[in-house]
Write a structure and sequence with these properties.
InterPro entries: RmlC_Cupin_sf
CATH architecture: Sandwich
Largest sheet: 6 strands, antiparallel
Number of strands: 8
Distance between the termini: 20 Å
CATH superfamily: Jelly Rolls
Protein name: Cupin 2 conserved barrel domain-containing protein
CATH topology: Jelly Rolls
Organism: Cyphellophora attinorum
Strand content: 35-45%
Mean pLDDT: 76
Number of helices: 2
Helix content: 10-25%
CATH class: Mainly Beta
Order of helices and strands: HEEEEEEEEH
Shape: globular
């Protein structure tokens, strides 16, 4: 199990991502080995990985591949782009910022509460 984490405060991470132009800011933490089946977001999303890792694929691509991102990585997902995510065995913590208010019609905080540990 990896205990690596980003070496900056939560407020520093928030300021960094705010400087990228994102205005909806919250912490998202997943249990180890969590899986999110293919879904999309109404707005552009970005993830700054603070702890753990995630693997993502875009199932609608002509030749879908999986890519894994670790601590310190930034991952952007375009509005409406379907993607599937697997969380690493160590769990996952990120800053998630989004233009738009929902995931497939559900509220962001509703999904976070129902499917992840906050």
């Amino acid at each position: 199990m990896s205990s690596a984490s980003i070496n900056e405060s939560r407020s520093a991470s928030e300021a960094k991502v705010s400087s990228w132009g994102f205005n909806h800011v919250f912490t998202w933490t997943d249990r180890p080995n969590a899986h999110y089946p293919p879904h999309s977001h109404l707005g552009l999303t970005t993830h700054l990985i603070r702890r753990g890792s995630l693997t993502i694929t875009y199932p609608d691509d002509e030749k879908p591949t999986k890519e894994t991102f670790g601590v310190g990585a930034r991952l952007d997902v375009a509005a409406g782009r379907r993607h599937e995510v697997w969380v690493g065995k160590e769990g996952f913590s990120q800053r998630h910022y989004e233009f738009g208010e929902g995931i497939d019609g559900r509220t962001l905080r509703g999904q976070a509460t129902a499917e992840t540990k906050m």
